[in-house]
Amino acid sequence: MYILANGRLITRDGAVPCLPDGGVAIDGAKIAAVGTTAELKEKYPAAEFVDAKGGVIMPGLVNAHTHIYSALARGLSIDGFNPTSFYEVLDGQWWNIDRHLTLAGTRASADALYLDCIRQGVTTIFDHHASFGEIPGSLFQIAESAKTFGIRSCLCYEVSDRDGEEKAEQSIQENRDWLDYCERNPGGMLAAMFGGHALFTISDRTFEKMVAANNGRTGFHIHVSEGMNDVYDSLQNYGRRPVQRLQDHGILGPRTILGHCIHVNTAEMEIIRATETMCVNNPESNMSNAVGCSPVLQLMQRGILVGLGTDAYTNDMLESLKVALAIQRHNACMPNVGWGEVTAMLFRNNPAIGEKYFGVPLGRLAPGAAADVIVMDYRPFTPFSDANIDGHMLFGMTGRQCQTTICNGKLLMKDRELVGIDEEAVNAHILEEARKLWGELNHCQY
């Protein structure tokens, strides 16, 4: 047992929202108590003390949509690649990368992303993986990395017809195998969804196979109406809008995540609401790909559970929070909208999404909740209390200020030093795989 205290405590729990000098007592994987530093020391005199050194103690962050397969793309330039449309971005870069990913490349990608998560205070992720270069066993490679680095992870493989029937069948089988594994090995750290790419790359026949393979055991995690090509394809080839196609196949529901949802109309929003399906907004990726702005305000007005993801554009959830607010205000041409919605997405809705899959209270520091706790090296020069916490998050903090990370009661990083991880060796392995990948993409050596 140990105490993490001597900091400004933010709990996201109504009972004790904020303490100017507080902390948590951690017993195993759960929080045993919340209180002032003095109270915790008195109550647990034999507990090991971890000093927050005046930083901000807060719940670990949840990323509701990311892509491990893109982790080795940082700094990458592919010869001749100059996209002028969203489809060209997908085909020329992301599909090009995942077509060259081996199991070793997948493992290196996972290692790189998990390192970033620890450093930026992200303790739970929902990943949507693709590695069409080598599919079987890819989710299990990611799982080994998740176990090594200690990050709570819900994984799936993105089924797609884009590389032919054999690859689609392998993708379906990988989802099935991973789901079987998670059902046989429950434990609150690894979970399974059933992945699908975008509807314009999935035929009705493949959807039928996906639904049959899943057999109602878990929710689906799928890209929906990220670009207008998704809408055009559904209307031209199936006579239905994307959300209607998903409804036709029985894919919607309270455990399903629809990523992006930029070009959904009001009728589709009503279907999403009626089926209690979840959506995840990825603002930075959407802006970079020039695909538009998700109607987050309208979705949330309808009571739809909307989370915040990064689409792997970044691993910094606080950075995404800032951009989510800015783009919603820009899109609405109103400087006074979005604050409540975007902070709810990150601090309330993402934990709610996580709890559906991990079965433990996330996103708050309270007795019995998961011991997912971070410390931010943030020294405010203006008043700081439960009345203006979100203002400090939006305009003061960044993920890089994380100095200590705990997930499931395990200390992963202390005072910016990784615990139990040979960072130099891990980085060498990642660099080796990145060089191989870049060389194959550009037909040269790095």
Task: Write a structural description.
This protein is an alpha/beta fold and about 450 residues long. It is built from 15 helices and 18 strands. The strands form three sheets. Strands 1, 2, 3, 4, 5, 15, 16, 17 and 18 form a nine-stranded mixed beta sheet that branches. Strand 1 (about 1-10) and strand 2 form a beta hairpin. Helix 5 (about 165-185) runs parallel beside helix 6, helix 8 (about 240-250) packs parallel to helix 9 and helix 12 packs across helix 13. The longest helix has 20 residues, at about 165-185. It starts with a strand and ends with a helix. The mean pLDDT is about 95.
Question: What features would you highlight for this structure?
Answer:
5-stranded parallel β-sheet, single chain, 446 residues, globular, 41% helix, alpha/beta, 9-stranded mixed β-sheet, 20% strand, 15 helices
